[in-house]
Amino acid sequence: MRHASDALVTGIGTILADDPLLTDRSGLPRRKRLLRVILDTKLRLPPKSRIVQTADDDLLVFTATPLDSPKARKLQEKASNSCA
Question: Residue 13 and residue 36: Cα distance in Å, rounded?
């Protein structure tokens, strides 16, 4: 099912409980990268989570936390460093 999808959406509860990568595990070639999406109103996403550590311009987080908050800046910096 993941292979046939363009994006995979989950809530922060799943990330906090399981620390998943949210990847396409089929091993089949993809026409485009799977977008990993997290719904996280309070921005509780840990910078050390596996999904943040492996972010490569394929992670989208929906939050109500201002983007200029210290939490958001730290997360953006961590995700940017994983792309470099």
Answer: 15
| Tokens of residue 76, six digits | 């953006």
Evaluate whether 33 touches 59 at the Cβ level (below 8 Å): no
Q: What is the pLDDT of residues 7-42, one digit of tens each?
A: 999 999 999 999 999 999 899 999 999 999 999 999
Prediction pTM value: 0.89
